[in-house]
């Protein structure tokens, strides 16, 4: 089944060009099934690029997914046109009274800022709190994962000596968890961040379980014991060239970035980068949608959607 998107959303044409099954709103209206309602809070500067990355993963599932896009504030975006934001993005007040099967909150390029210094920190906290009663499951990516771990569980991140950038080998910690079904014992994931959360603190917290980790990148997949919140510290949604784009951007800005680890053949940035994480990324989002959203959510979203979720074994 497809992911349902607005007819004129730029990602729609991009995904169709990749032969990915997307369905227009007009066609979806003719289908007599209830699609999953997934809300995406997009905090990344290039909205269209991130929309396309996430929709590509959401489309890789037998479930029909109805996506809405949410913005964090009304200030103009420097990287996305006002016409695009006005056409496709909703304000929080417009969705506050709704319930959703799933919510995805993206990362944000906020570097080494303390959370309290972030201009929209109060809005982020409000949406995280709201999500605990209005979304069956929440997927937090990268910066959003750190922000939610801090806000919900008082687990602070720390700054690394240098930015971690590259593709890193990870290991499963749990063997029989629905989210990891079909995973290899080892798999690769892109990371691009300055901060990290203590693996020991995460493992010691009674309300959290670490599902996958990396010797270099630390904890990667962390889930709350009630399966309602999934924290992903890397970027499974990245395309082959996303790290390359970031590397070249930093070079152009005079930041002297290191070449992303395990990314280019022979660590040579003139060569085409390896993309060794895409199967993992597709499986991760498919498992999340199936086991933590579809299998858990009520058919009627008007009731208590947060009751009766199974606990991790």
TrEMBL record:
Give the pathway annotation.
Amino-acid biosynthesis; L-methionine biosynthesis via de novo pathway; O-succinyl-L-homoserine from L-homoserine: step 1/1
UniProt keywords, alphabetically:
Acyltransferase, Amino-acid biosynthesis, Cytoplasm, Methionine biosynthesis, Transferase
Among InterPro entries, the record links this protein to: Class_I_gatase-like, HST_MetA, MetA_family
Site (Important for substrate specificity): which residue positions? 192
EC code:
2.3.1.46
Q: Check the record and name the CDD domains matching this protein.
A: GATase1_HTS
Q: Where is this site: Important for acyl-CoA specificity?
A: 111
Protein name in UniProt? Homoserine O-succinyltransferase
Q: Species name for this entry?
A: Ferrimonas gelatinilytica
